[in-house]
Amino acid sequence: MTRVLLTGFVPFGGESTNPSWQAVRAAADEPPAGIEAFAVELPCVYGASVAVLRAAIEETRPEIVVCVGQAGGRPDITVERVAVNVDDARIPDASGAEPVDEPIVPGGPAAYFSTLPVKACVAAVRAAGLPASVSNTAGTFVCNHVFYGLAHLIATELPDLRGGFVHVPHTPEQVVDRAQPSLPADAVARALREIAVTAAHTRTDLRIAGGATH
Fold this sequence. Notes:
two-stranded antiparallel ribbon; 6-stranded mixed sheet
């Protein structure tokens, strides 16, 4: 059994739900064969989110961590390639904090790559009949903050841990009055199961195109 920690976020920005937590909870409730899954809900708060993540890792002792966040407007499930060392808030977090051009870890590397097999995970989700792609930016809000915090923890303290970040679209109920793409939470949960299995069994990523021109 491979121990996998899945994290999602509480609702933010006036939303009543967050598809990341809906999908994470569903995926952990019915994990795929060979996976022992744990689900943790993170606050949408700079600093506190990484503290809760660290505590969850210490408690569950996973081999793989997949953090998940909402990316309203994106049409597919996007597996993030890189986390950058900057907090630059277009909107305040749930505590009202709105940092601008502040390092997540002072003196830390400018960026970290995911230690998940990003392209293999995308291929697995697509093979399951769901839309997915590689993303080369996790933004500069709390999602990237958590991704970088996880990557820094792996790089400096837990070298045997592997982890990364996945962004997911809105759910249909969130966009009833908006012309935005969406995916049902149960479909996203299926994708997360595929990602968990792929990460558990893949050490060397696929060498296929997944870049972008802009």
